[in-house]
Design brief:
Layout lengths: L20 H13 L10 H7 L2 H5 L1 E4 L14 E4 L6 E5 L10 E10 L2 E12 L2 E4 L5 H4 L32 E2 L6 H14 L11 H4 L9 E2 L2 H22 L4 H13 L8 H11 L2 H10 L22 H8 L30 H12 L1 H6 L4 E6 L2 E6 L4 H21 L19 H7 L14 H8 L10 H10 L11 H14 L1
Antiparallel strand pairs: 1-2, 2-3, 3-4, 4-5, 5-6, 7-8, 9-10
């Protein structure tokens, strides 16, 4: 997709046609308080009908949901995200084992200069409507990268092009000759037959999910890809506004943007990092970062031999700027599965990930936008309006580098430099243990809970019998790891397996 226009507006609105929780609640309460019972919104079905039409036309379907709203292949969890919207509403079957009497939602809101995500539940039971507080504990647990810290609240969604548990799990294509392709096509055609007879699912317009005349053997859709673009743009806002409200931002923002944008450092070699440091950092600050930045930090404690590609190339530069300041890009990702350890999912739009990230960066900071020459481009992703940055050329990077040196010298002269490096320590479990945490700390519906976050509790559990098994938790870990059943989703060497085993054994 090509655009000839570079906008000169200071900011582009990403608000779209919002129906946030606050407005939805007002509508529900107004309709339930009038004297016409036909207007009541006291059921999940009535709430779905109340939503603007595009919510029922633009959605993804989870046939195997790991959320509190359970699902199965005939009764999926529906993620309704509509067009250009900042609030996602979800529902599942009324007969589900969990969550069938509720609407769950994710609201993207701005508070005190921050873009944050608020998760809520609207419960419909026995004709009564109740609302949870924002980010109740049961939501925090799975939506904070296992930290239980609300500052890390974000959507749980996997990067393009695989969405395990979603219909269209492989690149939104139904009918592929391998994997679940043909099975998912048959499943979708069964839904087309059965949904009209189901009180809740018949409210959806399946024609907009994927047009099917019943004659073709393969269907190409875009529901999951589009949702990925929508959520990622919102997540970028969270990342940038988190940076903007940090104490170091005004001094380091030019270097952060340069690390993300300047393609003159894109070979992924060590000397690219050296070139970046010399161009953007004065000597005193470069020495400060060199002291705190290690090779292991380049890719967040992954194996140093990890092969970089694509957007991964910028992570050493970004981590060089942010790591010593205590900002861990590990928490940028929305992916809650083992692959969330890798750098790439942090920039996880289907196409042009870095440009999308930079577009939001510029849109959120007027000064950077002007310094870049107003390099924002609108783009239409299957009907969803998003933004990206046009290419940042060398001469623009030189402007950012000059400004970075100027501001950082100002910081050095202020005498406050050391205050930005005080007690900020990045704390993560050893690199080979992170793949275990990715599965065993996101809820029982995904994998058995193991208390990694509480070392004392974890240590105490290791030599105790594990649930209904005759083995202790440590013995179970030893068996699963040594037989290569665990960890799943990531390839590790025999030496790394030994390191995992030694870590657990040394806890006792």
């Amino acid at each position: 997709m090509k655009y000839a226009l570079v906008l000169t507006l200071s900011f582009i609105s990403l608000n779209g046609h919002a129906l946030p929780f606050k407005e939805a609640k007002e509508i529900v309460e107004k309709r339930n308080s009038d004297k016409n019972p036909d207007n009541d919104v006291r059921t999940v079905e009535a709430f779905i009908k109340m939503l603007p039409n595009d919510y029922r036309e633009i959605f993804s379907m989870m046939t195997d949901s790991k959320s509190l709203q359970t699902s199965d292949e005939e009764n999926p969890r529906i993620l309704m995200y509509g067009k250009d919207r900042r609030t996602v509403y979800t529902f599942n079957s009324p007969h589900a084992t969990s969550g069938g009497d509720a609407i769950e939602l994710m609201d993207t809101v701005s508070k005190n200069g921050k873009t944050i995500f608020e998760f809520r539940e609207i419960n419909f039971k026995d004709g009564k409507v109740t609302y949870s507080q924002a980010n109740p504990q049961k939501c925090i647990r799975c939506h904070t990268h296992n930290t239980n810290d609300v500052q890390f609240m974000r959507p749980n969604w996997q990067p393009y092009s695989r969405w395990d548990g979603a219909l269209g799990s492989n690149d939104d294509i139904l009918g592929l000759s391998f994997g679940r392709g043909n099975y998912e096509l048959d499943l979708y055609r069964k839904m087309q037959q059965e949904f009209p007879n189901k009180e809740r699912y018949r409210l959806l317009n399946l024609e907009t999910f994927n047009k099917d005349d019943g004659k073709v053997t393969i269907l190409f859709g875009h529901a999951n890809m589009t949702l990925t673009s929508v959520l990622t743009q919102l997540n970028y806002e969270r990342i940038i506004t988190r940076l903007k409200t940090s104490s170091f931002y005004e001094y380091y923002k030019y270097a952060i943007f340069g690390a993300s944008a300047c393609r003159m450092f894109d070979d992924g070699k060590d000397d690219d990092l050296e070139k970046f440091k010399n161009m953007f950092f004065p000597q005193e600050i470069k020495e400060k970062h060199d002291q705190r930045y290690t090779k292991a930090m380049r890719y967040d404690w992954l194996d140093e031999s990890y092969r970089v590609k694509g957007t991964d190339l910028v992570m050493p530069l970004i981590n060089y700027v942010l790591g010593p300041l205590g900002e861990n890009t590990f928490y940028w990702s929305m992916n809650f599965k083992p692959r969330h350890l890798l750098p790439d999912p942090r920039f996880q739009t289907p196409t042009d990930s870095r440009s999308n990230f930079l577009g939001v960066f510029l849109n959120e900071d007027k000064e950077l936008l002007e310094l870049s020459g107003n390099r924002i481009i609108p783009q239409d992703v299957h009907g969803q309006m998003t933004i990206k940055s046009s290419q940042i050329h060398t001469e623009v990077c030189e402007k950012f580098a000059q400004k970075s040196i100027e501001k950082l010298n100002e910081l050095v002269e202020s005498g406050k430099l050391d205050s930005y490096y005080g007690n900020r320590a990045i704390s993560l479990l050893p690199k080979n243990i992170q793949s275990c945490v990715g599965c065993h700390s996101v809820g029982e519906g995904f994998a058995p809970e193991i208390p990694f976050a509480d070392v004392g509790k974890f240590r105490n559990a290791l030599d105790k019998k594990w649930r209904d098994y005759d083995k202790t938790l440590l013995e179970m870990i030893q068996y699963k790891v040594s037989t290569k059943q665990m960890p799943k989703g990531i390839d590790i060497t025999d030496q790394q397996r030994e390191e995992i085993l030694r870590y657990f054994e040394n806890l006792l």
